[in-house]
């Protein structure tokens, strides 16, 4: 996640405008902080960036804390689970909206 603080500014300064994120990557807060600093400084506006994120990724060895029980438990609402995970992504990114989920 700390690599984001050097890699993302370099990418934005080089002209990259599509940010691909996911809760499972573990760096959405850092992405949001970098983007927020660019927005606050006036270097970019939110509408200049296309942000994607993903939900519903099952647990893996690298992502053991997946909150996707809703995918496997018929007692849970998949809609509610995906929506909660999406809202967590929005909160982590802090950008108000994403362009593609």
Strand numbers in spatial order across the main sheet: 1-2
N-to-C SSE string, H for helix and E for strand = HEHEH
What share of the residues lie within helices?
Answer: 25-40%
Distance between the termini: 21 Å
Distinct helical segment count: 3
Cα radius of gyration in angstroms: 15 Å
Shape: elongated
| Share of residues in strands | 5-15%
How many individual β-strands? 2
Content-based structural category: mainly alpha
Biggest sheet layout: 2 strands, parallel
* Contiguous runs where pLDDT drops below 50 for at least 5 residues: none
Q: Residue-averaged pLDDT, rounded? A: 91
Q: Which features would summarize this protein structure in a list?
A:
101 residues, mainly alpha, two-stranded parallel ribbon, 3 helices, 2 strands, 6% strand
């Amino acid at each position: 996640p700390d690599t984001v603080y050097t890699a993302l500014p370099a990418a934005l300064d080089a002209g990259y405008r599509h940010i691909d994120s996911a809760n499972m990557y573990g760096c959405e807060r850092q992405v949001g902080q970098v983007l927020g600093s660019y927005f606050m400084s006036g270097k970019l506006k939110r509408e200049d960036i296309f942000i994607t994120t993903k939900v519903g990724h099952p647990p893996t060895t690298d992502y053991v804390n997946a909150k996707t029980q809703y995918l496997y438990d018929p007692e849970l609402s998949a809609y509610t689970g995906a929506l909660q995970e999406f809202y967590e992504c929005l909160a982590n990114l802090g950008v108000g909206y994403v362009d593609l989920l």
